Amino acid sequence: MLARTFTHALVGLESRRVEVEAHLQNGLPAFAIVGLADRACQEAKERVRSGIASAELQWPGHRITVNLAPADLRKEGSGFDLPIALAVLAASRQVPLGALAGHAAVGELALDGRLRPVPGTLVAAEGARRGGARRLVCAAESGPEVLLAGVEPVPVRHLAEAVAYFRGERDPPPVEAPPGDVAVAVPDLADVRGQERARRALEIAAAGAHNLLLAGPPGIGKTMLARRLPGILPRLDDEEALEVTRIHSVAGLLPQGGGLLRTPPFRAPHHTASTAAVIGGGPHPRPGEASLAHRGVLLLDELPEFPRPVLEALRQPLEDGTVAVARVGGRVVFPARFQLVGTMNMCPCGARGDPAAQCTCSPQRLDRYRERLSRALLDRFDLVVALPRPRAGELGGAAGEASAAVRERVVAARARAGDDLARTTDADALLTRAVERLPLSGRGHARVARVARTIAALAAAPHVAPEHVAEALAYRSPTELAVA
Fold first, then answer.
1. pLDDT tens for residues 85-133?
2. What is the mean pLDDT of residues 135-154?
3. CATH number assigned to the domain covering 2-166
4. Which of 66, 230, 432, 445 is deepest in the core (most CB within 10 A)?
């Protein structure tokens, strides 16, 4: 007796169609799963057996072989529980064979037969749609996520409900579309007092998707400013929102019952995070913080405290917008187009640049501090801002401009950025002199030109003028950051 159903395996952010075959034959009762299944998938034998018993269904007294095809694709995770159970029940004629046609299934079984949601259901649903499946049987909590992929969900809370559905004894309950996009609370820029130059740099960074480095003594608002950058970024369009939602679904971070993630994501890993945690990877490659920040902001607070290999590994995604993870079993590519924001002190003790404190760092200690950041990494920051300690009057002053007002200017500037703003002759001459006098690399020259275009777009100028280039150069000056 043979039966089959379909599911989808995750490979990075892609899904691969997997045919689940269950074969029952005479012999001593046994249960084997073949087809390059990992440990979690092999443990499905116990979950499926207990789930079928808890659903008051009969466990076949045969030799059972479940094959997950194609056999050369590694199967990972517990999402194969439900399709394995359905294939076994169909092979034992407890579920009509023809009823499984046009369906795919994904979900983890509890020992009492309840169905649990699994990460990556959105990606599995997209694969089911491409594979021709009309419906996806899944955990009830995953129904709204399946709807995002344009597939009709069959939400079930228990294996017994799935069996009743395939027997024609019950219709699938309706799944309401998500009431709206996922709501994400973002701090408002109005909370920041003073630091006008840093606020200006933040607006330029948002308008041109530029990388930003904030330096200065501790406690002056560097992290506070960085956390408010997502609030002045434009909301994600449909395609961008689906990309971000897909990544968070695979990572298991998508809120249940929610819609698309429209707010640019914000990620701030601790400086003790490993390279795999930040970049992505591991034995079974999963997206890291860089990919979770895709279309949003990646904050590296206390930048020099991060291990040098982590910082150097960021150079590829900063240039290419992707992270490529190569393993013996293949190569996985994760999107990672984010804005990098770094914060740091001017010296190890933190007193450098603070008129109210005396720096006690020796030249040798300063040299070691400088060596933590390579010139190649610093060159990838479009804007470098040294923040002074705010005066007492500024801290007690009126609230700053709100994020909503700044975001309007950012959106308008991004709309104008599509126009080819040419530099005037005087602007070109100023940029040429800057390359000759300042230690600007070819990459630095290009980044100054990009920042100047952004400044011109914010000013609604018809072309890039010398004053726009001069402001852009002010954020690249070697005196801005003593350790640079």
1. 999 999 999 999 899 999 999 999 999 999 999 999 999 999 999 999 9
2. 94
3. 3.30.230.10
4. 66
- The 3-state secondary structure of 195-242, one letter per residue: CHHHHHHHHHHHHHCCCEEEECCCCCCHHHHHCCCHHHCCCCCHHHHH
pLDDT value of residue 483: 40
Identify which of 313, 310, 218 has the alpha carbon closest to the alpha carbon of residue 269. Answer: 310
Fold of 189-390: Rossmann fold (3.40.50)
| Spatial distance between the Cα atoms of 48 and 41, rounded to a whole number of angstroms | 11
* Token couple for 123: 């990606």
- Annotate the chain with three-state secondary structure: CEEEEEEEEEECCEEEEEEEEEEEECCCCEEEEECCECHHHHCHHHHHHHHHHHCCCCCCCCEEEEEEECCCCCECCCCCHHHHHHHHHHHCCCCCHHHHCCEEECCEECCCCEEECCCCHHHHHHHHHHCCCCEEEEEHHHHHHHHHCCCEEEEECEHHHHHHHHCCCCCCCCCCCCCCCCCCCCCCHHHCCCCHHHHHHHHHHHHHCCCEEEECCCCCCHHHHHCCCHHHCCCCCHHHHHHHHHHHHHCCCCCCCCCCCCCCCEECCCCCCCHHHHHEECCCCEECHHHHCCCCEEEECCHHHCCHHHHHHCHHHHHHCEEEEEECCEEEEEECCCEEEEEECCCCCCCCCCCCCCCCCCHHHHHHHHHCCCHHHHCCCCEEEECCCCCHHHHCCCCCCCHHHHHHHHHHHHHHCCCCCCECHHHHHHHHHHHHHCCCCHHHHHHHHHHHHHHHHHCCCCCECHHHHHHHHHCCCHHHCCCC
User: Among 115, 117, 138, 110, which residue's Cα sits nearest to residue 47?
Assistant: 110
Contacts (Cβ under 8 Å, ≥6 apart) of 171? 165
**3-state secondary structure string, 125-163?**
HHHHHHCCCCEEEEEHHHHHHHHHCCCEEEEECEHHHHH
Percent of the chain at pLDDT > 70 equals 95
d(CA 171, CA 152): 13
- Spell out the domain ranges in the chain: 2-166, 189-390
Beta partners for residue 286, in sequence order? 281
Mean pLDDT rounded to a whole number for the chain:
90
Largest CA distance in the chain: 88
